[in-house]
Amino acid sequence: MTALSPQALDGPVLVVGCGLIGTSVGLALRSHDVDVVLHDALPGNVEVAVSRGAGRPLDDAVRPYLVVVAVPPSASGAVVAEALARWHDALVTDVTSVKSGIQQAVEGLDGAERFAGGHPMAGSERSGPMAASAQLFEGRPWAVTPGPATRSDALDAVVDLALHVGAVPIIMESAAHDRAVALVSHVPQVMSTLTAARLHEAEGNSLALSGAGLRDTTRIAASDSALWRDILGTNRRDVKAVLERVRDDLDRVIGALDADDTDDDVLASVLESGRRGTALIPGKHGSSASDVDVVHVQVADRPGELSRLMAHTGEAGVNIEDLRLDHDLGRPVGLAEIAVAAGVGQALVRALTSRGWTAYP
Amino acid sequence: MTALSPQALDGPVLVVGCGLIGTSVGLALRSHDVDVVLHDALPGNVEVAVSRGAGRPLDDAVRPYLVVVAVPPSASGAVVAEALARWHDALVTDVTSVKSGIQQAVEGLDGAERFAGGHPMAGSERSGPMAASAQLFEGRPWAVTPGPATRSDALDAVVDLALHVGAVPIIMESAAHDRAVALVSHVPQVMSTLTAARLHEAEGNSLALSGAGLRDTTRIAASDSALWRDILGTNRRDVKAVLERVRDDLDRVIGALDADDTDDDVLASVLESGRRGTALIPGKHGSSASDVDVVHVQVADRPGELSRLMAHTGEAGVNIEDLRLDHDLGRPVGLAEIAVAAGVGQALVRALTSRGWTAYP
Question: For a Cys-Cys bond, which of A4, A49, B92, B349 suits A23, CB 3.0-4.6 Å?
Fold first, then answer.
């Protein structure tokens, strides 16, 4: 439960665009008995979304209280403008992942006061109404980006929308939002890509030395490149600004590594700045290693083994803060890394060892 | 079981340096009844390692078959030289994480033919003999780096050592090893650091938008900065060479993002190079997203819940390829991401939903 409780959304919510996001919004709102009306340029998408229970089709009698524009980014501005013009009482929001452009486009329009942008931080590698889920936004941040003209009822409606679908609304200006996603999403994507791109240089069997660090840092580089080309393209100014500062640091590191001019103080200072940066990330994953004990356990790669392990961990009365399953190179066993509260690790190792597991700190 | 079976190590193995790595080698070899002899500049470390069952103390009667030098990198060259000079029949190896420097130092010595370098890809955020474990190397790569003079029995002994402790020996030249670890370990560390260092720029509540991508890419940036300053310092030439090519790509990306000279083809080509790079990483984590279905399940943050989830997954007959536990922002529930074989995801969602879980693709 969050501290904030959603208000009843006051009248029909029209979702325009029945893809993954739009249909998921419909499903989540319907589970709270909100009246949801659906529209899509492709009637087939509406049919699928209706059949999945995401709402009813749009008809001329509908007077939407809130219009959620969930169409592809390239069409979003036009559809928002159309919605503001067509329904003079309706509040309007969108779900595009970069906010300044659409905000500027709306500010010149009649009805700009009825618009507040939004950006749910949720998605899936799949797309379309069949991939939709009422739980897609559960616990995820939903940025809400009012403009200077936005009325308070428009802001409230988008906050209520986020709360209804189980998301955590985070209110910020559109420009601040775009700088934030450059920092927490777009630049990490570029850095992951640049790291993975170097792997083409690997000689012989050298990638056999790969460990969890490489896999973690390059996981998101496996994402769809066309999608990311578009995302980076719509936020180019903010991404470029952060990358230029990355390049400044990179230049300092390269300079400090030069054999003729070694400067370990520069290396230490950049590394330390990164280490302290990780502590700023909210959530347990951002907590420092000293806050948890890590216990390693060998797990055979077959159904039921992880279940037995979790059962035995539960019997020991230990709460798992974090769990990762890593696969051993060339072996039919996985290695589970269980993070538990600091000070509890040794007891868990003993409890698991006494139950026949190969467990160690 | 690996395809390769270890031979009996033919005589006493002397471990010099009873820290985390040395004591873990002792424990692992003792579990195979190998005669292990221990030495350390600090007698207290030997006492602890002996009390943990890692071996017996060195005495003048010992004629080691193999000497494993597991002292800090700065002392390693001198201790290897001393071992080669003191025991004229002994084979010698070391465990330092960068190999060219020690290889060059050994090549000028009498007895160079009895030396083969090694580098176990294992460690822990903890150090010292108390943190040691017989399972530390289980399933992990152990690079073995013979030099031009290395005799085959010296190479065989280090391979046997790796197999005895459960590691996967990977034979490569020392120069190739150092280029490999630059690529798979040292450069990813720098990239993670550079990404995390930018988070100090975050304004207001913007880091509340952080997701799993940021946490994954910056996880290793939380590592000890003094340790990494030393590691980067000992492999500076190879790390610098890779980082210079990273900078070339970064310059291309920054140029392509320039508003006056947008070039989405460059963006697409760098992103695609990264995407294909991830597919080169061995192991299940390197497989592309299309090889697995991902199922999301909400898990209350208390003992026993993950156990129930695993039990129900096992009952459904589904094998878990990978599992991650993510924590929802501001909520007392976690989100488990379960990767299963492609095509099995929907069935698992149904099985878990019917057992009362909130599960979705």
Answer: A49
